[in-house]
Design a protein that fits this description.
By secondary structure, this protein is mainly α. 70% of the residues lie in helices and 0% in strands.
């Protein structure tokens, strides 16, 4: 498969994993209908964190080939590590809000850097490099 298509697939997987992370952290907030009373909602972070760390290692290899930038390479590692730190700390609403802010900021930054669909043929390569 072409390298740019692999990067797009990884980016899509990354966005989906961050969205899943958002649902996991909102499951501890009482105002949402998918509220989970006990802390079993955080078990999903142990699923998403290894996926994000795996994406980081793959993006690190693509960074050496100059297909992604350094900041885009670090986003999955940052989200995974902060999510794990928040899970291992005592649970309170402030940490949930911090996790949501980190995940939303990563999504906004990531989506502003990578257009998934582009009409120009060389536009995607220009954004990636």
């Amino acid at each position: 498969m072409e390298k740019n298509k692999k990067v797009i697939i990884l980016n899509s997987l990354l966005v989906g994993t961050i969205i899943l992370n958002l649902f996991i952290f909102t499951s501890r907030m009482r105002s949402f209908p998918w509220f989970i009373e006990d802390a079993s909602g955080y078990l999903g972070v142990f699923l998403t964190a290894p996926i994000l760390i795996g994406i980081y290692f793959i993006l690190r290899r693509y960074h050496k080939l100059q297909l992604v930038t350094n900041i885009n390479k670090v986003i999955p590692l940052f989200v995974a590590v902060t999510s794990l730190i928040i899970v291992f700390m005592p649970t309170n609403d402030f940490l949930n809000i911090v996790a949501l802010v980190i995940n939303v900021a990563a999504m906004v930054f990531f989506s502003s850097r990578f257009p998934i669909h582009s009409k120009r043929k060389g536009a995607l390569k220009k954004h990636i490099l």
